[in-house]
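Predict structure. Input: NAD(P)/FAD-dependent oxidoreductase, 482 residues.
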Amino acid sequence: MVIGAGPVGENAAERARAAGLTVAVVESELVGGECSYWACIPSKALLRPVAALADARRVAGSRQAVTGRLDAAAALTRRDDFTSHWNDDGQVDWLKAIGADLVRGHGRLSGPRRVAVDTADNGRLDLSARHAVVISTGSRAVVPDLPGIAEARPWTSREATASPTVPGRLAVVGGGVVGAEMATAWQALGASVTLLVRGSGLLPRMEPFAGELVMQGLVEAGVEVRTGVSVTELRRPGGSGPVTLVLAGSGGSGGGGSGSGSGEEELEADEVLFATGRAPRTDDLGLETVGLAPGSWLDVDDSCLVRDVDGDWLYAVGDVNHRALLTHQGKYQARIAGAAIGARAAGRPVETGPWGAHAATADAVAVPQVIFTDPEAAAVGLSAAEAERAGRRVRVVDYDLGQVAGASLYADGFRGRARMVVDEARGVLLGVTFVGAGVGELLHSATVAVAGEVPVERLWHAVPSFPTISEVWLRLLEAYRG
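Output follows.
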């Protein structure tokens, strides 16, 4: 039984079915989940026209053909098409095609291997699983408890990806992935965007140069980026009209404005987006019936089996286990968990050693992520700082992507940077970061190198095609060899 029918739950169901088990999937909203309707798919549908237009403007010849701004209405319509207009019929048909049963309603644990469902027609179903229950309920956006927050009705990532109209003025609070991507999208679609960041820069979990280059791109696109500021209060009388944000902090500008000095000030916007973190969707999941704390992240082993629950029957995959809050990583976990459930059900050995068939080893060492800003930022594995904190003896190799022939052909004046972090003791890569136009498509090669622990000396024999941006691999290895 699977609680939660997002992409992660769908993958768990499909793998369990492939192992020969019967499967029921419980979903209280749309089959396809957050990713399909309010996150990955709609956000990237909004960001793709931004990148396409920016690429055209970066090349002499096509630049002269660009005569106007993005067509916001057309971009929003395309976004709606990719979300199937928030209709899940296609995804329901897919579940049926793999032989899974769909139960519409809110499911919660009611004891070992038991799930109670408040159904969509106000009924109740009490279900039991012979082998396993998989929790894949994901996470939700966290909005800070500030004075006036309820009346201000702020956007979260859901409203930011699903808004049917372009706000005139948008304040974005938070310098992480959602904040940077949504500032990119809505500025290009015609909003006047102010990005408010508590810290000193963007994308704090990546190499520092990634945030620096992304901030530079946002400022050049017209976004006002202000660092070192916090929102202390919001005012929106009656819950409509403009919203006033009361700000505190140094108000330093990231290059897009004059800054404000110290003390408090006010900023007026038509909408405000809070992109300030996520929390697990486990507060009404019946965790207390199996000895777990409601509202908590679920601690799992590498087969995604929940620890501190007896009987080897409860699994948690995706955001809810807090290992890596990324759809592709959650789907990977779901494939691992589905295979482990099948093996345990059949009485076969479960291979949970590093890189075993039933171990989500990559969660710790090879998590890839692309931030679809302009420029793009893409990384896998450990940053240099993370590797050093882990006690690794590393060598960091940087290269200017603008010096790669394929990059200079891709865009006039190409700006970007590449870094690889080498474990000197073992001669393998611990992490790779790329920043620049189109670099997201470079990332899987780096992921293979990190996950496969390919020796640096062997990478020397992986010859990149000329003239492509991938030639940066050769340049990095040349710099490493000296």
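Residues 375-481 form a domain with the Enolase-like; domain 1 fold (CATH 3.30.390.30).
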